[in-house]
């Protein structure tokens, strides 16, 4: 809870420090697990948010059907926690294909692919390794980052996978509704449109006798409306276990659902109308807020009227000109960052706050896994 994050600021030895409130994390995990059970949807959480065996283990205990990663290095680490790994990234180069083909000897490995080039690459790697890799054909449903562009193109690529047995196995479809940050009736309409696109693809495959046992989608903003895409069998949210200023300002969580805060110290107040904290781009990244890009780089819990307006490597500049109250030199404050995922990647370890206010250092196991 936000109150628990505020309590943390005077208990730490040094700043800046990333603090995670464990009871809030557990509440967030339990809530989504209950929703998923009620709608017969599986959760395959994306570990890019927490990058930690510890949190992956919590997700597994609450029934996650597998884990999602973006990088091969993450896949290798997270395979210690789960035997079923999905690489939600077109890792189409020989090195990564070889690494995943080797991992597929002892784990179930799946990868999202949107090209015949990718299929050729992974068929070659799996054949050399003597393994089999599951393929989810990636279809673009509106985010326009990766994915085949039409249902027919998706169907054609699915047909190509079936011709590459025994080294490739068609496991289903992959999609990412990353463009959907709408709420209310607009989100309902957006998700129903996505469902119709996928249904068209599924009908084409079904007509040719091609089975698609997995339809993998989802995101944190759409998590609790996942039932509006009834063709999907699993969702891959990441941010939901911590939340951040993006999900809070957009209305996808409440303040008490925010489990992650960065405790900082005010190190300068010399410039009029400004305070400077000991955290810049090395701590927060430069991500603007998705729905309120002019709101700054996060939300200050103690002084919500101030804005974190400018970041350099080691400095964060707070605009105090519209504040009736503001922090003093040497004071510690707590910032909810806009985007928690890259912030986790910028620290070697984080502070886990237990219900009894005890702190425990947790390693960020897949920090810096860029390959």
Structure notes:
This protein has 371 residues and is α/β, with parallel strands linked by helices. The protein has two domains: 25-239, TIM Barrel (Alpha-Beta Barrel), CATH 3.20.20.10; 245-363, Lyase, Ornithine Decarboxylase, Chain A, domain 1 (Beta Barrel), CATH 2.40.37. Helix content is 31%, strand content 22%. The chain has eleven helices and 17 strands. It has helices at residues 2-8, 22-38, 53-61, 72-78, 94-103, 116-129, 151-162, 184-207, 245-249, 281-284, 340-345; strands spanning 17-21, 42-43, 67-69, 84-87, 108-113, 133-138, 168-174, 214-217, 234-235, 260-268, 274-277, 298-300, 307-311, 316-319, 332-337, 349-353, 359-363. The strands form two sheets. Strands 1, 10, 11, 12, 13, 14, 15, 16 and 17 form a nine-stranded mixed β-sheet that branches. The protein has an eight-stranded parallel β-sheet with strand order 2-9-8-7-6-5-4-3. A hairpin with a 5-residue loop joins strand 16 and strand 17 (359-363). The protein is elongated. The relative contact order is 0.16. The model has no long low-confidence stretch (mean pLDDT 96).
User: Which CATH architecture of the largest domain?
Assistant: Alpha-Beta Barrel
Structural class: alpha/beta
CATH class of the largest domain: Alpha Beta
Would you count the extended β strands for me?
Answer: 17
Please bin the fraction of helical residues.
25-40%
Roughly how many Å is the radius of gyration?
22 Å
What coarse outline follows from CA principal-axis ratios?
A: elongated
Mean pLDDT: 96
Question: Hey, roughly how much beta strand do the residues contain?
Answer: 15-25%
Into how many domains do the coordinates divide?
Answer: 2
Assembly annotation: single chain
């Amino acid at each position: 809870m936000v109150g628990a994050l505020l309590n943390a600021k005077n208990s730490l030895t040094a700043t800046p420090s990333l603090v995670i409130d464990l009871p809030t994390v557990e509440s967030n995990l339990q809530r989504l697990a209950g929703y998923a059970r009620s709608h017969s949807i599986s959760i395959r959480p994306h570990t890019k948010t927490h990058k930690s065996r510890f949190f992956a283990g919590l997700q597994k205990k609450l029934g996650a059907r597998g884990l999602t990663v973006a990088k091969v290095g993450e896949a290798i680490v997270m395979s210690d926690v789960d035997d079923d790994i999905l690489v939600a990234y077109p890792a189409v180069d020989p090195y990564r294909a070889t690494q995943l083909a080797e991992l597929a000897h002892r784990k179930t490995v799946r990868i999202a692919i949107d090209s015949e080039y990718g299929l050729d690459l992974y068929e070659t790697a799996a054949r050399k390794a003597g393994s089999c890799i599951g393929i989810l054909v990636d279809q673009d449903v509106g985010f326009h980052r990766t994915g085949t562009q039409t249902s027919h193109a998706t169907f054609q690529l699915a047909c190509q996978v079936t011709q590459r047995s025994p080294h490739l196995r068609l496991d289903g479809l992959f999609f990412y509704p990353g463009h959907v940050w709408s709420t209310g009736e607009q989100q309902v309409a957006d998700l129903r449109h996505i469902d119709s696109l996928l249904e068209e693809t599924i009908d084409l495959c079904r007509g040719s006798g091609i089975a698609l046992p997995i339809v993998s989608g989802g995101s944190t903003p759409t998590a609790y409306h996942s039932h509006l895409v009834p063709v999907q069998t699993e969702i891959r949210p990441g941010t939901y276990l911590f939340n951040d200023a993006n999900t809070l300002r957009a209305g996808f969580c409440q303040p008490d659902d925010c489990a992650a805060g960065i405790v900082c110290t005010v190190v300068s107040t010399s410039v009029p109308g400004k305070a400077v904290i000991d955290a810049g781009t090395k701590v927060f990244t430069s991500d603007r807020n998705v729905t309120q890009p002019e709101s700054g780089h996060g939300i200050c819990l103690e002084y919500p009227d101030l804005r974190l307006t400018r970041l350099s490597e080691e400095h964060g500049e707070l605009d105090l000109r519209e504040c009736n109250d503001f922090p003093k030199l040497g004071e510690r404050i707590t910032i909810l960052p806009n985007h928690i995922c890259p912030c986790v990647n910028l620290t070697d370890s984080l502070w886990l706050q237990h219900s009894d206010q005890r702190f425990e250092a947790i390693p960020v196991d897949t920090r810096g896994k860029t390959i």
